[in-house]
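thought: fold this chain, then report.
action: predict
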Amino acid sequence: MRAFLICPVRGRDQGEMDTIIAALKRRGWSFCFPPGDTASDDEDGSRTFARTRAAIEAAEMVFVMWDDKSQAGLFALGMAYALRKPITVLAPPPATEWKSYQNMMREWAEKG
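observation:
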């Protein structure tokens, strides 16, 4: 079972990410993990996003660890949605009082 993990590349506790990934691997998932599998070696990001799209296309599931500051995460979430991939939110973000991606992900998490 192949999955793509949308998660912050910077600013997240790597120990927390390792724990989450290990738990999902025990359930049989293999991962495309952006910090290690979709190198950011281009100036404008176009090759990085092409790699991300290819990895999402190849995935059976997209898992999300939301970071509202991550523009790349937002872009990847949009690609996953457009490609009609099943999306599982691992840790729902706090709700907002207005229409938002956070509220949409909370609803997805509740629906399972």
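thought: worth noting. The two ends are 18 Å apart (CA to CA).
final: tokens above.
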